Amino acid sequence: MKNLFLSLVLLFISSLAYAQDITGKWMTEDGEAVVEIYQSGDKLNGKIVWLKNANDTNGKPLIDHENPDKSKRTRTLIGLLMLMDFKQNNAKWEGGKIYDPSEGKTYKCSIWLEKGKLKVRGYIGMFYQTQTWTRKTDG
């Protein structure tokens, strides 16, 4: 009986840990991109792995043309680091940044799971905007 109880407790704890796992691929709220979130040491990062419109009108891959650092303006958007340096704080991942390549701006950001969806909140001072991203399950 004691072993059964211990097994059930461990199963419950492992299911909670799995439910809080935000690594993997996530479709952005507008459906224009998929970002893969991955562990890097004790932090989480995320890179763009798919774009609905990945090429310009000439068929060339889209680049980071709005980046304030001129030396980075030739980087392709596919593979671009978009979420950086998140550390877990209870049920949230905080202290990170999100880069918006359409504006070339970086914002403070926090992310967390809510009802199976990823909440992504970017901050400008005391103002914020929250998006809801959906887990990609098909590659």
Automatic annotation (TrEMBL):
Fetch the Pfam families from UniProt.
Answer: DUF2147
Q: Which protein is depicted? A: DUF2147 domain-containing protein
PANTHER family documented for this protein: BLL6627 PROTEIN, BLR1215 PROTEIN
Identify the domain of life: Bacteria
Membrane spanning segments where?
Answer: none
Q: Does the keyword Transcription apply?
A: no
- Point out the signal peptide segment: 1-19
> What organism is this sequence from?
uncultured Dysgonomonas sp
Describe the location of the DUF2147 domain by residue ranges. Answer: 24-135
Keywords in alphabetical order: Signal
